[in-house]
Amino acid sequence: MREALSRPADVDETPLPEESPADYVYRITHTKAEAGWLRLQQRSLPLLPVLAADTIVVLDGRILGKPQDIGHAEEMLHALSGQEHQVYTAVGLTFQGQTRLRLSTTTVRFRDISQREIQAYITSGEPHDKAGAYAIQGKAAAFIINIDGSYSGVVGLPLFETSQLLEETGISVF
């Protein structure tokens, strides 16, 4: 079996000291979109629009990114159990050297989740690589009492904001 070639990440996703969650997700998305545009230029590829997005879960002002391991996923799910939190998804579009950004903010309320449910959910593999250790479009939908805002924003690509950016760039969504 051949090993996959790896290269360093294009974007350092470490939050800056005193950076608000909204500023953080804007910065990461902006950096990702511009990195994509630069990659097109470096590889002499067609300079088509580059779309980037980043999603974070915020509980009591604290950013919950992707879980580092199973224990971290369990910790996040325990923290979210019975609580209301915000999901911030920024979407950015870089085209012709200009980057435009939009932010979707959604409030999500979880019901109380039992230890057995948390373990079963973690065993499903779904929390891996998901902000806040859950996917609203999967089994975690059973944990959600209410959402106030954009479902597609919680999934990870806010369609309303994305269509606004595309239209502003002259790309019709219809």
Mean pLDDT: 92
Query: How much of the sequence is in beta strands?
Result: 15-25%
Tell me roughly what share of residues is in helical segments: 25-40%
Spatial order of the strands forming the largest sheet: 2-1-3-4-5
- Computed CA radius of gyration, to the nearest angstrom: 17 Å
Highest CATH level, the class:
Alpha Beta
C-alpha end-to-end distance: 44 Å
CATH architecture label: Alpha-Beta Complex
Count up the domains: 1
- Per DSSP E runs of 2 or more residues, the count of β-strands stands at 5
Structural class: alpha+beta
Give start-end ranges of low-pLDDT stretches. 1-7
Under CATH, the topology can be stated as Maf protein
Cα shape: elongated
Helix and strand element order:
HEEHEEHEHH
Sheet of most strands: 5 strands, antiparallel
Counting DSSP H or I runs of 4 or more residues, the number of helices is 5
Structure, explained:
The chain is α+β, with helices and mostly antiparallel strands and 174 residues long. The chain has helices at 21-42, 70-80, 115-123, 151-155, 159-168; strands spanning 50-59, 62-64, 84-95, 98-110, 144-148. It has one domain: Maf protein. Strands 2-1-3-4-5 form a five-stranded antiparallel sheet. Helix 2 crosses helix 3. The chain is elongated. The termini are far apart.
